[in-house]
Amino acid sequence: MTVRVTVNGDKPYDVVVGRHLLGELPALLGPDVRRVLVMHPASLEATGEAVREDLVAQGYEAFAAELPDAEEQKTAQVAAFCWQVMGQADFTRSDAIVSVGGGATTDLAGFVAATWLRGIRVVHVPTTLLAMVDAAVGGKTGINTAEGKNLVGAFHPPAGVLCDLAALESLDRWDLVAGLAEVIKTGFIADERILELTAEHAHALREWAGADATEETWAVLTELIERSVRVKARVVGEDLTEQGLREILNYGHTLGHAIELVERYQLRHGAAVAVGMVFAAELGRLGGKLDDAVVERHREILTAVGLPTTYRGDRWDQLLAAMRRDKKARGDLLRFVVLDDVGRPVRLEGPDPTVLAAAYAEISKEPPSGNPGVPVQLGA
Ligand SMILES: NC(=O)c1ccc[n+]([C@@H]2O[C@H](COP(=O)([O-])OP(=O)(O)OC[C@H]3O[C@@H](n4cnc5c(N)ncnc54)[C@H](O)[C@@H]3O)[C@@H](O)[C@H]2O)c1
Ligand SMILES: O=C(O)C(=O)C[C@@H](O)[C@H](O)[C@H](O)COP(=O)(O)O
Ligand SMILES: [Zn+2]
Predict the structure, then answer these.
(1) Which one-letter DSSP state was computed for residue 366?
(2) 105 has binding-site annotation
(3) Reduced 3-state DSSP string for 201-214
(4) Distance of CA 199 to the CA centre of its chain
(5) Which atom belonging to ligand 1 lies closest to the Cα atom of 182?
């Protein structure tokens, strides 16, 4: 069954969840588009090429830009490479980009679309769970700089998002699990049923078997995707440019992004956000807002699906420096999203440094012995 969720805004668009969705591309690209750049990471060459050939068969002049894998593609250099490809192929304002990949690809492709000729159409075809439930929806685009994560970007909503569930068949279980972090985040900020479903099926999700997954597991995963997309669509439909409400989607990200930077992106975004959510829960608890039981629920559900809940205890100065560059910060004021309860996110501004350090102590574990450079592993 195909499900459509509309994202409201100046130019409303649909997030389509189902199978065999490529036939929808021409309608999303619109009548004026002649040239299309399909952007995909090297690891998805066959999928990217299939999309490109399909577009050629439909009469488009279609090009491909093969990108480095994962976070390595979110750089100014890679964006400049894409601008060069488009310049050499005479891309005009009536041409378009199609992204095929995970969240790193949709972030980069969205940014290139936002900046080329000050903005052209982009359709996202997310291929990871994380990109389907979060990154491809909502128009936040961006690249990293040496100083931090997503420091350069733009709000540029797509013309449509095609979540073809078949893509998840080839996703390895660590990437499926990393995507569950954003699903669980959505559960904590806005939809408790997500937490119940995830906890109930944690084992099957953690042991994701791709094409061999049972019908029951596919059904649960599909419901989790739909529920998460509905929450994200509602939030970004109300507050595209993060004037207020949208900040709730950043739950767990203040420390999460700092961990990603300190680890030089050697762990997945979802894994870092998982640790960041436990940190935020501890901040809420230490600030007298959140019950012990809800904090424990964070640890239980994240551990159950194989996500980490602790981080090495000897990186506080670096993490704090990175958190000062978080986009929610204002001047010297650090701002966090914490919870009063499940489904009740609130803002915490300028927490006392001793409370911050105490929350860090609650998530700290010994640094790996013998090799201080070893990155945190999922589930470690
Ligand atoms: N813009 C937003 O609103 C938003 C929201 C959440 C996350 N993000 C960003 O998304 C990124 C993380 O996304 P991600 O977890 O999808 O990571 P990713 O894009 O790096 O993909 C993870 C890995 O999966 C591989 N892959 C992708 N699709 C596959 C498939 N179908 N089968 C097999 N392998 C596949 C990729 O090649 C990569 O190695 C981060 O950069 C994060 O900042 C953005
Ligand atoms: O869509 C949003 O808004 C989010 O915050 C979703 C996050 O999951 C996502 O990782 C986002 O890219 C983080 O944004 P940033 O503004 O903190 O870079
Ligand atoms: Zn995120």
Answers:
(1) P
(2) yes
(3) CHHHHHCCCHHHCC
(4) 21
(5) 6
Indicate the pTM of the whole model: 0.96
Choose the residue to mutate in 71, 134, 236, 334 for probing ligand 2, maximizing ligand atoms within 8 Å of C-beta.
134
Given CA atoms 165, 1, 50, 28 in this order, what sign does their dihedral have?
Answer: negative
For atom 8 of ligand 1, the residue with the nearest CA is 135
Q: What is the ipTM of this complex?
A: 0.99
Assigned fold of 3-170: Rossmann fold (3.40.50)
Summarize pLDDT for 195-240 with one digit per residue, the tens: 999 999 999 999 999 999 999 999 999 999 999 999 999 999 999 9
Length of the chain: 380
Q: Residue 135: exposed, middle, or buried by beta-carbon count in 10 A (0-12, 13-18, 19+)?
A: buried
Say if residue 328 carries a ligand binding annotation: no
Architecture of domain 173-365: Up-down Bundle (1.20)
What residues in the chain have per-residue pLDDT under 50? 370-380
pLDDT for 372: 36
From 249, 254, 325, mutation site for ligand 2 pocket: most ligand atoms within 8 A of C-beta: 249
* Nearest Cα residue to atom 13 of ligand 2: 250
Closest Cα to atom 4 of ligand 1: 135
Q: What DSSP character marks residue 333?
A: B
Point out the ligand 1 atom lying closest to the alpha carbon of residue 129: 16
Looking at residue 367, what is its pLDDT? 60
